[in-house]
Amino acid sequence: MTTQQREMNSEERARVMMIIWFAMILGVVVFAIVAAVLGKNQQPQEDMLLTLVGMGMAAFMFVVSLIVPNIVANQQFRATLQQGRYETDEEKKQAMNDLESVFMTRFLIGMALLEGAAFLNLVFYMVEGQILAYIPVAILVALMIALKPSKAKLEAWIRNQMENYNLENQN
Length: 171
Fold this sequence. Notes:
Elements (H helix, E strand, L loop, with lengths): L9 H29 L10 H33 L7 H40 L5 H13 L4 H18 L3
Keywords: Membrane, Transmembrane, Transmembrane helix
């Protein structure tokens, strides 16, 4: 017996992204609290090398999170549209589902890059005890909050990508 998995609609996909978004932010916040509690009696080291490296990595990952997810998404978007014809309603529905999956992939990659940089800075705080390591964590969490997914953002991104794709291929 084969089981066929039902495709998610836009609202369900947006809800899943919201759950993941919240979980990723909560993971960083909980670990920040744990690191603060474990390191409250720790004397800060004079050497701040790891803290400075962490700040640099946070800035680098912020820039990377703006570029890499879009590169991946653009490649997947074009590959999805070039796969075949979209004449029937079923084919159009499948294409839209695939494009929503591309948006979700783009979102997850961007969030993961920011989350990883935040965790790195928290680990560096635990090693060196420098409270300055919390500055990039706070900034990265604020950026993660700003990336809150929604059905409207999902639909707007697909519409924008379709317009750009149609403009590029109007030869």
